[in-house]
Amino acid sequence: MLKIMDSNKLTMTPSKIERVKAKYIVRFVLGLVVSVILINNLAEVLSNSRNKSFYPTADLVRAIGDTRVYYLEEGKKRWVESFESFQAQGFSWDAVRTIAPEELMSLPEGDKITSASPVILAGEETRLPDLVPLSAEEIQYDTLNGRKILRFTSVFLNQGGGFLEVVAKPLTLSTDALKEVFQRVVNTNGTERLRLTGYFLWHAMHGHYHVTNVMGYMLEPADSKGTVISAKEKVSFCLRDDRIENSSVSAATRTFSTCTSTRQGVSVGWADVYSYSLPDQYLDVHGLTPATYRLLLDSNPKGSILENRLDNNRSIVIAYMDPANNIFNVLGKAVPLPGFSSFPDGTTIRSQSDNVAYVMFHNKKRLFPPGISTTTRGIVLPNSIIETIFTNNLIKNSNGVIYALNDKGYRRLFPSPDAYNSYGFNFADIALISEHELVLYPEAKYIRQTGSDIIYEISGNTKKIVNNISAISPDMVHVINIIDFNSYTTVAN
Q1: Residue 211: in which H helix or E strand, if any?
Q2: Which residue among 329, 365, 467, 491 sits deepest, i.e. has the most Cβ atoms within 10 Å of its Cβ?
C-alpha cells in the first residue's frame, strides 16, 4: 500500500531549520579537526619512519616484495651479501622487519655484511663475553730440536656480561681435522643465535679438541714500531674454566669444567690457562741479539669471537733478553685490567694515541711535567692499558711539603691537615721529586667543590668567587671534596 505523508510533517519552522544547520556545522567542524589531527599524526609517523635516527642500531630489515636483508647500523643499511652469510651470522628470518621500499632506499649504504663481519644485534651487548689476556706467566728458556725457545703460560679472563660458549656437532676423528664451530650469542629478549666463529680442531698431540684462533703470541723489539721477530698468530685452545679470577661478579659460576667435542667455553669471572709445558706454548728465540723486547699476548687475534669490546685484547711483558746466556729480566708488565700492571718506580710510560707521558710510582701513574717533550720518551702502551693504571697525584719536595696534582698537572697545597686526611691518602704513595721538577708543574689558582659549577680563585687559605670564568680553562681547576673546600676561608670580591 502506498503511504502518503502528511505535508504538515515535512514543514519546518525557521527556528528548527537554524538548529539543524547549527548541529551539522558543529559535526563538520569536529570532523575536520579530527581529520587534521589524524593527518598530522600520520605525517609524523611517516617522517619518523624515514628518519635514519628512528631505526635502532643493530636491526634487520627487508623491503616489501624483496628478499634481500639489510642490517641497520648508525643510520646506514648494510646488505647481508649472501644466504651463506645470513646463516653464518645465525640470523633468524623471524627477526627481519619488513619496511616500505622507499624507506629502505632513503638510507645511505654501508659496508656489506659477510660471514666474518662482527655484528652485534640490539639486546646482545650486555650478554657478550669480554676476553682479556693476562701477562705471560712462568716464562723460561728451553731447547727444541737444537734451537733456543721461550716457553710461557698464557691466560685469558672473561670479564664480560655473559659466558663465551662455542658448540658444534659431535666429532669422532682420530687425526688433525677441522669442523665448523659456532658461538652461542644470547639476547636479553630471550632469543639466541649460533654464529660461525671458527673451527674445532682434533689435536692429535694434545688428545682433545681445540677452538682455532683463540690466542696470538708475538715478540718484538721494545723500541720498534710493529717489527715482529717471532710470532704464532693462530693458536688454538681447549676452552674451559681453569681458574677463578673474579669471584665478586654475580655470574662467576663454573660452567665449563671440561672441553668436549660438542661444547666448550669460559664463564664470567673465570680464566682459561694454557701451561708453558704444553706443545706449541713457545716462541723461537734462537740467535736473538741481547736487547729489550716486548712479549705480547693477543686474545681473539682475528676478531672471530664476538665480544663487547676488542681494544683490550693485548697484554705485554717488557724484558731484557739474552737467550744465549739464559737471561730474561722483566722490566714491566702491562695488562688492560685495573691493578694488574706493574713497573719499577721512575719508569716513563706513554700513550699510544696522544703521546701523553706518565711517571710510574708504586705501580701508579703521574702525569709527566707539562711543557717537556715526551714524543720519544718511555714505553709506549695502548690506551686500553693506560686507562686501567691507577693515578697517583701526590708529590712532595725535599722539605716534605705535600702537593696535590690534578689530572692536567696543576699543583696545589692542601689548606689544612684535615683537608689532606679527608681523602684517606697513604703517605707511602707520595712521590718525592726535586725542586726543578716541582716548578715544572704550574700552580693551581682555581677550585670548585664536587657537584658544583661555581669556580673560586684561591690565594693561600682563602677563596673568592670568580664572576667571569670565560678565560679559565677546566684544566686549571682542582675539583675537591667538601672538607677540603671548607678549609678555605671565603672572602668577598
Answers
A1: strand 208-221
A2: 365
Q: Does the residue 14 lie in any domain?
A: no
What count of Cα atoms within 13 Å lies in the side-chain half-sphere of residue 406? 18
Residue 392: how many CB atoms within 10 A of its CB? 22
d(CA 106, CA 5): 64
Cβ neighbours around 426 below 10 Å, total? 10
pLDDT reading at 284 higher than 60: yes
Grid cell 669471584 — which residue?
A: 247
Q: What is the pLDDT of residue 181?
A: 87
Task: Clarify whether residues 162 and 211 are in a common domain.
Answer: yes
The β-bridge relationship of strands 489-490 and 462-465 is parallel
DSSP state of 112: P
Per-residue burial over 110-146, b if 16 or more Cβ lie within 10 Å, else e, is: beebeeebebebeebbebbbbbbbbbbeebebeeeee
pTM: 0.80
Grid cell, residue 83, equals 644466504
Compute the Cα dihedral for 252, 253, 256, 257 and give only its sign. Answer: positive
Domain total for the chain? Answer: 4
